[in-house]
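Board notes (copied after class):
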Amino acid sequence: MTERLRVRSARNRRDLQSFIDLPYRLHARDPVWVPPLRRDVELLLSRTRNPFFEHAEAEYFIAEVDGRVAGRIAAISNRLHNETHGDRVGFFGFFESTDDQEVANALLDAASEWCRSRNHDVMRGPASFSVNDECGLLVQGFETSPALMMPHNPRYYVTLLERAGLTKAKDLWVYRGGSEEHYVPVPERLARGTELIRQRHGITLRPLNMKDFHGEVERIKVLYNAAWERNWGFVPMTDHEIDHLAEQFKPVVIPEMVPMAEKDGKLVGFGIALPDLNVVFRRHRSGRLFPMILDLLWSLKMKRIRRARILLLGVLPEYRGKGIDAMLYHWIWTKSAERRIYWAEAGWILEDNPAMNAGLEKMTFRVYKTYRLYDRGV
């Protein structure tokens, strides 16, 4: 590290504000970057208000070149991840940097040293904070804007990380289907299969019941941690984390876009799709709540958002292979179309999850973005 470059912890309020501000300055001229809501970022980083910190800790670092902030990174120790997988992995996230290898190296070294001090032997990322949040570095698909809750980064970030000695741990595939301009009919095979599955297995679908929102969340909690438990890198969400996320989503949930699959009254699968709010966020480059919130409410009311993101789709292990995932996709496709939403992003999906990838291919969805998680020994 040279005299012109200094990396230090962002501990006080002023430094934390610098940590938050950096991407708004760094990506101001990137036409496809979508500024997150500053209020949401502040909540995410808060050690007192984000329930993630009930089982984890983190340190935030900023890099200054000649006194000006040129990069940032978070070093993360997630106890729940290591208890789940029996390993000693630390994480890094919220990585941003100018196109300066020295800055990137210094940030990654600071995060690595912090992880090593917590007895980790590998540093993985980017994950901000975990695989349940925004994660992965964009390595393919730079020309299109990210959908809701998906990251975006310049191409040179790939070079910065790989020259710093990070190597691929896993690729995450993201799919798109439909058209933003016009309705694309549901594949006939999917429509026929949905009715056949309903008759053969007695599976019924219904929308999320907003009048019993708390009860619905409780049912989803049980299924979520059971449905994803064997996935690589999966970290179960605590009750508090799911409650926290549900309250954030509640104002923008469209009940008809959250199908619940039941067998004899028991929840066996669910899907969650949301209108792609990034369509609105992209128009407001400051990340401030006002006047963006007025634009958002108007766009939702008038059904002007024509894109959706399918965030989650899960089925209990004992009910997999019965086509319930196809039923859920069919429901989301048709109900979204009723709101004039004709395009959707689905994912991310692990590159080596053949069942999910094959299912999306059969629906005529195609991979259009790839995100990558990297590892480096500490």
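Comment from the instructor: The longest strand covers residues 167-178. The chain has two domains: 5-172, 177-370.
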